[in-house]
What we know:
Blueprint: H1 2-42, H2 45-73, H3 81-99, H4 108-127, H5 143-176, H6 187-223, H7 231-249, H8 258-285
Amino acid sequence: MDLLQDIVSRNAFLLTFEVRLFWLVAFIYGTGCFFLLLYIIFRSGHLGKASHAILWTGITLHTGLIILRTFEGGRAPFQTLYESLSWFAWSATITYLFVSRRWKDVYLPGFFVTLISVGACMYALLSRSPDVKPLSPPLQSYWFEWHVTLAFLSYAVFVVSFAVEMSCLILKPFLKRGMAQDFGLSLDGLDEFRGTAVRLVLFGFPLLTFCIFSGAAWANEAWGRYWSWDPKETWSLITWTVFAVYLHSMAIPSMRGLPASLFNILGFICMMMTFLGVNWLAKLLGIPSLHVYAV
């Protein structure tokens, strides 16, 4: 009995420490987002650099948090929605920081990325249970780590691509008037910068493709069929189709401007619908879904 109490007490302590650490990570991301907002207002590169230093601190702590969660659960830390939101925020932020090393004095996309990451962290902390749960039977598969890791990697890439696309759309009319050079871009360099969004989708699209195929293989292993038009399966196919149209539109000169940008933004919206919206929709409308266990 004493041994059992010791184990329960230790697990409770670890969970409490982990939640407090997650709050600290969310606060650091929020601080980085605030510095990026100040950068937008005052157009100071020093504020942009400071925001990146803050975000790297947050990523370091968040990495430790994920390792702790893995130790607690004895499994990959993205079974529940609480864990998935944490992983999503971590992967989006670290992808942005890694990609942004190719840019000089361009920090505007970071505001969109960190805003999304902070939102994911707060959603997890304020509305989801942090309890560590054993791996459910459908997830006890070789495909679990591969499928989910590649899915979130593609999501992270699409988030950064969306942030770049939004930055280009916002800055372009100002640059045409000879304004907004303080954001590190010129009108001549805008197309080259926008090319980053295209290259990110070119990288993420095969990942999403493999994610769908691996999910079908996993579904056949777990439920005896490759495809059942489950809401999450359907929305993942919609997301794949929208990004396929985006890549195709970039190859057509007449669509390479605003129409292509809108498809990229629509792809991001569909991706968020696949990640989160399906859960709400299935519960709200009572639609049967084999993926609702992730909520």
